[in-house]
Design a protein that fits this description.
two-stranded antiparallel sheet, mainly beta, Chaperonin_GroES_sf, six-stranded antiparallel β-sheet
Amino acid sequence: MSELGPKKQAITMLADRLLVQVPTTEGERTARSGILIPATAQVAKRLTWTEVVAIGPAVRSIKQGDLVLFSPEDRFEVEIQAETYLILRERDIHAVASDRIDTGTGLYL
């Protein structure tokens, strides 16, 4: 540490790793019927969408800014400059939503 505080360093993701934001859907949520579901309620295999912040050099199908669908069980949390992010592997991503069209097929959200 210097006298001016901690030095900020650039972060580079390695291999097939993705850095994503913590999904805003975590915590309490409301069912369609209006019932409040607490954060502690167990939901079997519920996948979550979140935005990609950074990618490693071996990531092939995902770009920064894309929305990705993943299982909350396949994640590692990390804190960077007082913000919490998740680290995922590209192979753990189930779907990608983006503005660009890489192939001629797919669904629109």
